[in-house]
Amino acid sequence: MFKNIINKEFTMQVLTHICFGVVGALLVQFVFIQRTATAVATVNLTALQDSFIRETAKQSLSQEEMKQRVTSFSQQLTQAINKIAKEKHVTILLTEAVISNEKDYTQEIVNRVKKGMSQ
């Protein structure tokens, strides 16, 4: 048994298998993890909410209508962010949380929310 451990040929085979295992793991990581990594994008959620509040405050709505409008806005906003993230393969973060210049989808989200609320 100890002769096999000391045997150079056996040791080389073991090292070869380990090396191929590591290379295989790196290849899997590159193909399935690195290539499917999503980019980061931003949305200025504060500006979106402020704009919605200003527009809604200008209208004379009952408390029930206001509640429905807020609920609709929230649902449309969530749907728009989720759809853009899925379509563009990005992770959307708040503009305030991102230091670097990443692609901003605020205007596209505004357009989708307005379209969804008008239906």
TrEMBL record:
Keywords: Membrane, Transmembrane, Transmembrane helix. InterPro entries: TrbI_Ftype. The chain crosses the membrane at residues 12-32. Pfam families: TrbI_Ftype. This is Type F conjugative transfer system protein TrbI. It comes from Aquicella lusitana.
